[in-house]
Amino acid sequence: MNWNDPTFLRSTSAFIQWIVIAFASVAVALQTAKHFVDLREKNISSKISAAKEDALAAENRLKSERIAKAEENQRELEAQLAKTNTETGNKLAEDEARLAETRKAADAANERAAILERHKELTAPRRFTEAERIALIAHLMECPKGKIVLTVTEGDLEAVAYSEAIRSIFKEAGHDVEFTPIIFGSGPKGIAVSLIMEASEDDTPTHALPILTSFQKAGIEVSGYRIKNLHDDVLHITVGAKPIQK
Question: pTM, whole model, 2 decimals?
Answer without folding.
Answer: 0.51
